[in-house]
Amino acid sequence: MISGRCAACKYLRRRCPSDCIFSPYFPPNDHQRFACVHRIYGASNVGKMLQQIPSHDLRAKAADTLYFEAKYRIQDPVYGCVGMITQLHQQIHSAESELAKIRAQIAFLNSNDHAQESQVQNIETKLHPDSNILILPEQINAAGLWSTYVPTSASSTQTSWF
Ligand SMILES: [Zn+2]
Fold it and tell me: Domain LOB spans what residues (predicted)?
């Protein structure tokens, strides 16, 4: 049964036994998977590690992890998968700081909206009761100046009459 050999047995050019430890985790259609693991850990070590794990589900997870770690160790011989993890941590950190900035902007804009709403309410309360004319603070000041100006001119005209 040469065609039924798993990727590991094919790679190692050996007969694949029915109880092959690699067979469930290294299917024959994915040569790269076993090649990576063999290059970093060695086939014998991978076989021993998988045999130490009793559960099939855990063995599958271990094989996936070994492949992931080996793949990134080949891509980045210095940092391996730690390089990828660090990169993802940095992405999370920058996304979190961006989110914090946007939340602060939203809070700032909301507080500005509330301040403007209360200003509009204050101005509305200063409306003249008989008319719909809005009395602004500048107009009140101008009226005040006018009222102080009139008596002095009246008194000056009065003095000229006598
Ligand atoms: Zn095999």
Answer: 4-106
Rounded distance, CA 136 to CA 142, Å?
Answer: 10
Using the mean position of ligand 1's atoms as its centre, give its distance from the Cα of residue 22 in Å.
Answer: 5
Cα 92 from chain centroid? 6
State how far the Cα of 1 lies from the Cα of 28, in Å rounded to an integer.
Answer: 13
Question: Are residue 60 and residue 95 in the same domain, yes or no?
Answer: no
Q: Measured in angstroms, how far is the CA atom of residue 50 from the centroid of ligand 1?
A: 13
Q: From the CA of 20, how far away is ligand 1's center (Å)?
A: 5
- Taking only the tens of pLDDT, the chain with its 162 residues reads 446 899 999 999 999 999 999 999 999 999 999 999 999 999 999 999 999 999 999 999 999 999 999 999 999 999 999 999 999 999 999 999 999 999 999 999 999 888 887 777 776 666 555 555 554 555 444 444 444 444 444 444 444 444
Say yes or no: 97 and 48 in one domain.
Answer: no
Residue 162 in any domain: the answer is no
Ligand 1 centroid–CA 4 distance in Å is: 9
Q: How many domains does the chain have?
A: 2
The CA 11 to ligand 1 mean position distance, Å, reads: 9
pTM: 0.59
**Domain region containing 36:** 7-75
